[in-house]
Amino acid sequence: MPTTTLGVHSKHLHRSIENAMMKLRLASFAFLVFTFSAFGCGDKATLVGELDAAIDISTADLASAEDLVADLHAADAGVVIDTSADATPLVDSAPPNYVNLPLKNFVVDSLLAPTSTQSAAAYGVDLDGDGTIDNALGEILVGVGAIAGSTSEIQDTLDETVNLGNTLLLLRLHATDFQTDPNAIGLYWPAKTQTCCTKTGFYLNLTDCIAEAKTKCFNGSHAFTPATTTPTLLQGELTAGTFDLATPRLQFHLELTYAGTLDFDLLNARIQGTIDSNNIVNGRIVGAIPESHVARVASMLLTNLYQSNNFISNQLGTMFDTNNDGVISQLEITSNGLAKALLNPDVDLDNDGKNELSFGVGFTAVGAQIP
């Protein structure tokens, strides 16, 4: 069983400190949003300044905490923990004849945003081998949803783009046996968009749209065309019908209704799930967003929520859109104290000193035809 020697208590304490700081920042954010919303006091510039001051608490406190972590690390350096489930690299060299193996084709029919700290953990994995589950962006989405009073807007965004046929993700599995195969292969593509739901409009009825898409596109046998000629190759294993596939880099694709196309890299990406007849259940797509992509991802996700005229639009505009142009830009993200605090990268997968932001979402998939 693969093992690694880690300062377990120090690692967990460091993560606990970071989580505590996150909760304090979110609490500050919640208080200021409540004050502004309830009493209508203060202009936006003043409120943003107060917010930046409220969350500027991490440097000294975390520095002293780092000293404590270092002491504990020296004390418990010898503790051995098992990291085989998440940290063991799976990608090697693909068998040259994998295309001749039996295959199953799938299309993702739902992407699932975390709605609680429990689901954020369920959609994450231990990316860096420190014994803790990594899904920082998932935790941030949960926190933002909790502050706004609802997490449904984030899930509605995903339901809308998938069931309209704008975001279609394809997965092909190759295996000698779809119950057990230590050398399973996966191919991943985004698909060309197509109309899966005709019930469009500003006030889209998502329930009706999902029902129509299930009949039209997600019926188990519908045909989809890959949007790229070369798929991403993933390798891993199948155990009791559950697969775990990995690739060094995967491009995640979302067509956002208001903000447009969002493509970003996931490093050390994993696609996992359980085959249930011709469906995939309990799926998750995980990886780490490079530091250079984080501001763009945050800008587009927040802008899409901001422009969708939903429950949290006003709060997002108040806190981030400093020039009132209807867009939350990358500059507004990188110059905003709250955004910088929340989007602080949490894993360093290539030991280059530039950390990445961990990311994980759930998914289900149904059978499909792929040329």
Features:
371 residues, two-stranded antiparallel sheet, alpha+beta, 2 domains, 12 helices, 10 strands, 8-stranded antiparallel β-barrel
Radius of gyration, in Å, reads 22 Å
Class derived from helix and strand content: alpha+beta
Give the neighbour order of strands across the main sheet.
3-4-5-6-7-8-9-10
Strand % is: 25-35%
Overall shape: globular
The biggest sheet amounts to: 8 strands, antiparallel, barrel
β-strand number: 10
Q: TL;DR?
A:
By secondary structure, the chain is α+β, with helices and mostly antiparallel strands. It is built from 12 helices and 10 strands.
What does this protein look like?
A hairpin with a 3-residue loop joins β7 and β8 (about 260-275). Helix content is about 40%, strand content about 25%. It has helices at about 10-40, 45-55, 60-75, 85, 115-120, 135-150, 150-165, 205-215, 290-305, 315-320, 330-335, 335-340; strands at about 5, 80, 105-110, 170-175, 180-190, 230-240, 240-255, 260-275, 280-290, 355-365. The protein contains twelve helices and ten strands. It has two domains: about 1-80, no CATH class; about 90-365, no CATH class. The protein has an eight-stranded antiparallel beta barrel. The longest helix has about 30 residues, at about 10-40. The chain starts with a strand and ends with a strand.
